[in-house]
Design a protein that fits this description.
About 20% of the residues lie in helices and about 35% in strands. The strands form ten sheets. Strands 1, 2, 3, 4 and 5 form a five-stranded antiparallel β-sheet that branches. Strands 10, 11, 12, 13 and 14 form a five-stranded antiparallel β-sheet that branches. Strands 15, 16, 17, 18 and 19 form a five-stranded antiparallel β-sheet that branches. The chain starts with a helix and ends with a helix. The structure holds 2-acetamido-2-deoxy-beta-D-glucopyranose (10 copies). Pfam families: DUF8189.
């Protein structure tokens, strides 16, 4: 129990302390809160390139040298496509005696308004809220209700400055804070708009700041921190208002640094919905990690999920590299020992861990794919504005999933570190049937062997509607290894019009870069003539005037249309049978044209296809309908990619020549595979 005198005394102490901590937080403990405004605004006039129209912007908040909160507004520059940041706008502190000491944490509240929270010199949490009508205005300070306990020493008892976290959770904002106490505990409060619940003590006796993540699988939050036992502990929320006790995370936990908080990354996408991976800095200087292995709907002693074992991230950083690695290879040294790790993921959903090296450059260790091996540490670099003077804030871009690191430079500016990536084409306009060279450059951690390029009608957002495609190695079949920097030359036989070229990731229908081309001199022949010409090109018989040898081209078109319809209806066996029937017409035409060798090889393929499709039992084709449809010929060539491309050309665009090319080339690939196999058997 404190006497009123004690209270007075401690507030007096805080007063002097806030003076003493005027320079707090130390530059390299500082971390910005970065959040995209969902409400457009007319940017402040200080903004470079600002007009008077409302635009989308990114808000970057920092705690200043003067222990105030400051905002810099980032808007996209139309010409450079770079985000340009305004000068810092000072938002002050709750009062002349209540100064800002923690790093800010921001989240979306009701109606998409941003709330930004800080812990102040009196140990309490205050926030500012975005004005819906003037979205760059954050004016009035509000205090979260109730009173957090504070020990003598106040801010000096904090180790890091990431003492506050804010998350959007179930339509509310959940705020977590670490008390300024010798035995510091984690507290939480939730709020709807400006109505927050009183603080609830989650205990802990924290040595480090806590990391709180939302697990989309359980729908609940998970907190991680190093406690006074020196170990990474976790605390899982198991009901809206119930948390499990703090528990040491994993068995046989290695020794950890007790100044750097663990970080956690919840994977929120697709099949691995909601598995968390936790990273912590080991006492040996290596990055340690552990991850959830299975998640279930039933709470168990490990929350909703079970955990694997702690491991090192191979080739990790070290405080004394020569001791750890025994050779003089240049390895990064950390800039500090407090809250040094940050996480994110790349476009293939491999996890990444970031840290700032001693000379103010950003480094990372990374997985190429989810659950893949770890690479690095690799130097990423510095922002254009210069040396990094803060901890990084990692943001994921909402469309492609690329990461970006936001930092404060030693000169006090907002800096962005991202990797170079681009997609370009050799020409902006091309004649149908001529060559187009597509070039790209993606960072190594963002390049997978099954990345691909797709051609689309401009504005068609459905990535399954590709009209032509190439894997990054140039063919229609994905092969290792990845091609971070490369180009592919492709002839396009599409009709007149505007088309998009998209770079898509890892056999998935998820695009990350787009460029465009306009096609002129499109084919004007009759549809069936286009189809046969296309098939001849696909077969590598471009010079052959195949249309002279065709009996009833219109009938062939109908047969193909029925084939595509069957595939669309997911009647794959019927589709394969109809494909055989349609290709029968091509065999007949080739025979007429005395292209005997191709005709025979194709006929053999068609026979194989027909018997396979009718008997539904075959050695040559493997049909995998479980995830995305895949149909493999002789276990070595995937044919559905071309089938879908051909179908899209017929269906969406009546682009019969391009459709024919897709048919011709997949058939040729199969014949080639077949020939090779036969040869192996014979000789
Ligand atoms: C602003 O962002 C919203 C949501 O991301 C988007 O729909 C809108 O097109 C953007 N507006 C501008 C002018 O970029
Ligand atoms: C801190 O405050 C002083 C006095 O008001 C001012 O001169 C200085 O520019 C401020 N520093 C920052 C980083 O805002
Ligand atoms: C930027 O581009 C958008 C659309 O392309 C346009 O509406 C806007 O006026 C441009 N802004 C400036 C400042 O040029
Ligand atoms: C959210 O927006 C709705 C509709 O404009 C408004 O009625 C409501 O008061 C807003 N809520 C808050 C908390 O501002
Ligand atoms: C961190 O560990 C050191 C010893 O390694 C110990 O002296 C110190 O008290 C620990 N800090 C906390 C907050 O537990
Ligand atoms: C920073 O240090 C790394 C090695 O630790 C070095 O490769 C890099 O060039 C340095 N960057 C600058 C800008 O000095
Ligand atoms: C793409 O990025 C690479 C690497 O940064 C660069 O050398 C190249 O000039 C860029 N190409 C284009 C078209 O911007
Ligand atoms: C397109 O490029 C390929 C090689 O990349 C070449 O063999 C072919 O002749 C070119 N076609 C045209 C029409 O230029
Ligand atoms: C194919 O033959 C027809 C009929 O003789 C002719 O009109 C057409 O120009 C020829 N096409 C090509 C590409 O040689
Ligand atoms: C067939 O064999 C030849 C020569 O060995 C090779 O170049 C070609 O790539 C093979 N084709 C296929 C489709 O495997």
């Amino acid at each position: 129990m404190e006497s009123p005198h004690g209270l007075l005394l401690s507030s007096f102490l805080l007063l002097t302390l806030s003076g003493a901590y005027a320079g707090d937080p130390a530059a390299d403990l500082r971390r910005m809160a970065v959040i995209h405004s969902l409400i457009p605004a007319v940017p402040p006039s200080a903004s470079r390139g600002a007009g008077s129209e409302a635009v989308n912007f990114t808000a970057a908040f920092r705690t200043s040298d003067n222990a105030t909160l400051q905002l810099s507004v980032g808007i996209l520059d139309n010409s450079t496509r770079q985000e340009m940041y305004s000068e810092w706008v000072d938002l002050g502190s709750p009062s002349s005696t209540v100064k800002v000491v923690s790093n800010p944490a921001a989240a979306y509240s009701v109606n998409n308004t941003i709330q930004v929270f800080v812990q102040c010199s009196d140990g309490q949490v205050y926030y500012l809220e975005q004005k819906p009508k003037h979205a760059v205005y954050f004016v009035t300070w509000y205090k979260l209700p109730g009173s957090l306990p504070v020990d003598e020493g106040g801010p000096a008892l904090l180790v890091g400055r990431d003492s506050v976290s804010a998350l959007a959770w179930k339509g509310r904002v959940a705020v977590f804070v670490r008390s300024m106490q010798v035995s510091s505990n984690l507290y939480w409060s939730t709020g709807v708009a400006k109505s927050f619940t009183p603080w609830q003590n989650l205990g802990g006796n924290l040595a480090t700041d806590a990391t709180v993540v939302y697990n989309p699988f359980s729908g609940y939050m998970e907190a991680y921190a190093v406690l006074s036992d020196g170990k990474v502990n976790r605390k899982d929320q198991v009901h809206d208002n119930k948390w499990q006790d703090w528990t040491v995370l994993g068995v046989s936990q290695p020794a950890m640094v007790n100044t750097s908080r663990p970080v956690a990354h919840a994977m929120s996408e697709t099949i691995f919905h909601g598995m968390t991976e936790v990273f912590a800095l080991g006492a040996d200087g290596k990055i340690k990690h552990i991850w959830q292995t299975t998640c279930d709907n039933v709470v168990n002693p490990w929350g909703y999920c079970t955990w694997g074992l702690w491991g090192n991230i191979a080739g990790s950083l070290s405080n004394d590299i020569r001791v750890a690695y025994g050779y003089g290879m240049e390895k990064p040294q950390l800039r500090g020992q407090v809250n040094v790790l940050a996480t994110g993921h790349n476009v293939h959903l491999g996890n990444e861990v970031f840290f700032v090296g001693k000379n103010g450059s950003l480094w990372h260790v990374w997985q190429l794919l989810r659950n893949d091996v770890w690479n690095g540490p690799d130097l990423i670099g510095r922002p254009a504005e210069g040396e990094i003077g803060s901890l990084p804030t990692i943001m994921q871009d909402r469309t492609g999933g690329w990461w970006r690191a936001y930092v404060i430079t030693t000169k006090g500016q907002v800096g962005i570190v991202e990797q170079q990536k681009n997609l370009s084409i050799s020409v902006e306009q091309m004649a149908s049937g001529s060559n187009l060279t597509v070039s790209w450059r993606v960072p190594e951690d963002e390049a997978a062997g099954a990345d691909w390029l797709g051609v689309y009608r401009r504005g068609d957002d459905e990535n399954r509607n590709y009209l032509d495609f190439r894997y990054v190695q140039g063919g229609q079949n994905p092969k290792q290894p990845p091609v971070p920097k490369g180009s592919v030359t492709m002839a396009i036989y599409l009709p007149d019009g505007k088309y998009d070229l998209r770079y898509l990731v890892n056999r998935k229908f998820s695009d990350v870069m787009t460029t465009g081309v306009e096609v002129y001199n499109g084919p004007e022949d009759e549809n069936w003539v286009q189809l046969y010409q296309g098939m001849a090109i696909g077969l590598g018989k471009e010079g052959l005037n195949i249309t002279l040898c065709v009996k009833d081209g219109e009938a062939t078109i109908k047969k193909f249309e029925q084939t595509w319809e069957a595939f669309l209806q997911r009647e794959f066996w019927e589709g394969l049978k109809l494909l055989g029937v349609s290709l029968g017409d091509l065999v007949a035409a080739l025979v007429q044209c005395e292209e005997t060798a191709v005709a025979e090889a194709l006929n053999k393929f068609v026979t194989d296809l027909m018997s396979c499709a009718s008997a539904k039992q075959c050695t040559s084709f493997v049909v995998d309908l479980v995830k995305e449809t895949e149909i493999w010929f002789k276990d070595s060539y995937e044919i559905f990619g071309d089938i879908r491309a051909a179908s899209n050309n017929f269906r969406l665009l009546k682009a019969y020549k391009q459709g024919g090319v897709c048919v011709g080339r997949v058939v040729k690939a199969c014949i080639d595979v077949d020939n090779n196999i036969t040869k192996t058997v014979v000789y």
